Amino acid sequence: MTGRIAACRFGVIMLRIFWWTTLIATVTLIASLTTMLAADWPTPWANSWPSWTVALALTIILESIIFWIGIITVYVTSVQLGIKIRVIGVLCGWIPIANLIALRLIIRTVDEEVRFESAKEQLNRARAAARICATRYPVLLVHGVFSRDTKALNYWGRIPAELQRNGAVIYYGNHQSAASVPDSARELTERILHIVQTTGCGKVNVIAHSKGGLDMRYAIARCGAAPYVASLTTINTPHRGCGFADYLLEKIPLAAQKQVEAAYNTAASHLGDKQPDFMAAVHDLTQAGCARLNAEIGDANELHGNASTTGPFAGIICQSVGSKLAHATTGKFPLNFTYPLVKWFDGPNDGLVAQPSFPWGERFTWLEPNGTRGISHADMIDLNRENIPGFDVREFYVQIVAALKQRGL
């Protein structure tokens, strides 16, 4: 058990102690008060009230200490509480009955986190010697559009640390947040060449999310990255585009598009992008844009679920993954707003990309866990660091990389 999880466990224990001791103390104090008042009034009260008052004061002080130790501990150390439950706890803290309901929610959430993370810790310790993610070639993680690779907030959430713990060597694409597919592909090709030349690894296993999958397909087919790529796994990539993007570009006035583009490009430049191009990135995600790119890339075999025996993709393991969000209400902002729009145009989707657009390569994995939540576009990169019932995103990536190792990659 890690230090953080041990602290979470301690916090839960303190809150449970508070819950039960407060209940027992409250019943006891009320019973004693009732007994005093039921006796010959006011003589028993005059003789007993000092000790009863002292008992009440001591109870309040001790219970307050226990509560604040517990609540501060879980608020500081828990990941799964998130902002929502923390705010609920603060707002309901002084409302009778509601505060008890909020406290039970906090205890249940953190307790489940402790159980889940403890089981994961045991699993990782049990297989540590096997180093199941120690692939022949290092793993290159390629982010999607409107994001960057930063140390402060890892695009891939807790996934890289989990892969590294199981033996993987990880690199990042480090390309701009928004650019056309060809421009991003050229950046990624340069990055791959740099990794290969500086480490002598020969090739890389690429895992690319969203637009990153399009960027890597273009890099392999048109920019010379093919000899240095052992495998390409695309995660929720819109290989056939996003129909709602075409619709929005038709309906939103050009002047408004230009304003958004200028604002984004300016902000991205300040954050480190050399030549951000918001609209170029957006246009390459439309169905029309992807149709043009697919023709230019020329990987029709992969688009139809087959492996190429000739051409730039020959000898490269090509596979894809897609997921489904069950309802708009189960997605985080802004996917809870975009989900109905995508569903209207293209059917089942992850909040941004529809099911028909996901498949590519010789193997396609469709993720649709039991329950009413589903898995969103953001869940697939652990953006919210949320433990989703029925889907362990970190273990999913561990198994992807472990399978690559088993294939000698």
Automatic annotation (TrEMBL):
The highest taxon in the source lineage is Bacteria
A single GO molecular function term of this UniProt record: triacylglycerol lipase activity
Kindly name one Pfam family recorded for this protein. Answer: Palm_thioest
Q: Which Gene3D superfamilies match?
A: alpha/beta hydrolase
Alphabetical UniProt keywords? Hydrolase, Membrane, Transmembrane, Transmembrane helix
| E.C. code | 3.1.1.3
Note whether Transmembrane occurs among the keywords.
Answer: yes
Q: What class of enzyme is it?
A: hydrolase
- Residues annotated as transmembrane: 17-39, 51-75, 87-107
Coiled coil ranges (UniProt) are: none
Q: What name does this protein carry? A: Triacylglycerol lipase
User: What is the organism lineage in this UniProt record?
Assistant: Bacteria, Bacillati, Actinomycetota, Actinomycetes, Bifidobacteriales
